[in-house]
Amino acid sequence: MVQAKQGDTVQLHYMGKLQDGTVFDSSRERCPLQFTIGNGQVIAGFEQAVIGMKVGELKTARIPMEQAYGPHREDMIVKMDRSKLPSGVDPKIGQRLEMTQVDDQTSLVTVTDANETTLTLDANHPLAGKELTFDIELVGIV
Question: Can you list the domains of the chain with their CATH numbers?
Answer without folding.
Answer: 9-70+127-141 (3.10.50.40), 74-122 (2.40.10.330)
